[in-house]
Specification:
The protein is of the alpha+beta class. It contains two helices and 13 strands; from the N terminus they run ββββββαββββββαβ. The protein folds into two domains: 72 residues, Outer Surface Protein A, domain 3; 83 residues, Outer Surface Protein A, domain 3 (Alpha-Beta Complex), CATH 3.90.930.12. The strands form four sheets. It has a four-stranded antiparallel sheet, with helices on one face. The protein has a three-stranded antiparallel sheet with strand order 1-6-5, with helices on one face. Strands 2-3-4 form a three-stranded antiparallel sheet, with helices on one face.
């Protein structure tokens, strides 16, 4: 059995889970998520626990088993606690500001880059530490929006200027050697 797939998912208080065949709907204080899984995986709800099982031990079923359990767990955690991704703006004169709901990035272009948040996304900026926080209840969406923000000005390897994830390490390259 898959180590991840065989672990049951506990449902925290305030979260409602509805399972209809291979379709799962999770509703909580942060929002509502739903997803349809392949019919090979069996999802059952009993005594406040969600269990995922597979019919056979072949490679496809083993892969679907662990993936389905991980996706359902992310749905339950997302609607109860939410997810957050932190980005850092590095560079002289580089900064991020909030203009109402919109995020305004000053990252070395001749114009500011204005980012409209997709529905359900919340941005927060800290001017002192030059950090941007992306918050939402869908783990897949928070990762995609953070990747799109990083894409505006990816960090360059010589000085490290740009937008990077807070845990990301930039490998610096040596510049030109110069004349001797």
């Amino acid at each position: 059995m898959s180590r991840i797939g065989r672990m049951p998912i506990t449902i925290p208080p305030g979260v409602q889970v509805e399972v209809k065949g291979s379709h799962v709907r999770v509703k909580g204080p942060k929002g509502e998520l739903e997803r349809t899984f392949p019919p090979e995986v069996t999802i059952s709800l009993e005594d406040g626990l969600i269990r995922v099982s597979r019919p056979a031990d072949d490679n496809r079923h083993r892969a679907l088993h662990g993936m389905a359990r991980a996706l359902i767990h992310n749905m339950v955690v997302g609607v109860s606690a939410g997810f957050e991704r932190v980005l850092e703006v590095n560079g002289v004169g580089y900064r991020a500001e909030m203009d109402g709901e919109k995020l305004v990035l000053y990252v070395g272009y001749s114009h500011p880059v204005v980012v409209e948040p997709p529905p359900g996304i919340a941005f927060e900026t800290d001017v002192r530490t030059r950090q941007i926080k992306v918050k939402v209840y869908d783990k897949e969406l928070v990762g995609q929006v953070a990747a799109n923000l990083r894409e505006v000005r990816p960090p360059e390897p010589y000085k490290g200027k740009g937008i990077k994830y807070i845990e990301e390490k930039i490998r610096h390259k040596a510049g030109k050697a110069g004349k001797v």
